[in-house]
Request: fold
Amino acid sequence: MFSQSLRPWAFFPTGTSISDYASMIVAVLGTTISPYLFFWQAAQEVEDSHRRPRSAELRSHPEYAAEHLGRIKLDTYVGMLFSNLIALCIVVATAVTLNLHGVTDIQTSAQAAEALRPVAGDLAFAVFALGIVGTGLLAVPVLAGSAAYAVSELMGWPAGLSHGFRKARGFYLIIIAATGIGTVMSAMDFDPIKALVWSAIVNGVISAPIMVVMMWIGQSERIMGSLTMSRRHRFFGWSATVVMAGAVIFMLATA
Reply:
């Protein structure tokens, strides 16, 4: 879907429909700003606060709040920098290997692994397999955990990895169920590549209203008190929200 050269405008795909292009934009945004991140990160911060009573000083000691938020900011900047750089490398590597030779309908992991052959040679499949395993070990706990946090908070159940199974039975059962469903799906006749794309598209669609609510909460003095977002954060936050919502509207309009 990408042109054969790596010029700046090569990132605009050729030979594909506008609707497919719009869907991929939403999928990329949905992978970058996924709804589960909101639940996971927020829940982890709350749980960490419960484990550390000193965190209650956030409201009364601005210096401690600045240090705490500074750590979160640095972690987010570094994580987003590396994740987007890796994503760009994946896109470019796939474009100049598979797409350049007319391979545009990737249905299996083996086909995707061919993108690494120019770099890894005969070890392409082993390298790709290690990447998949590493991604799974990282993603499965986060995805299942975020679902458990979201459902448990909605139902008012005790939630948190710091609790035992007896105290947070519903929380852990959701993690077990989510992991089990994913395992069963992997053994069924599903196209894993399409499943990943569609899950990313769904994430993108859901992210837009969640971002609106998040921005509203972040700038509400009634809810946040003196810790409301700055004007700079409001500008960039609402800009990202508009971009996400615009991409979803563009996708629906061209579907």
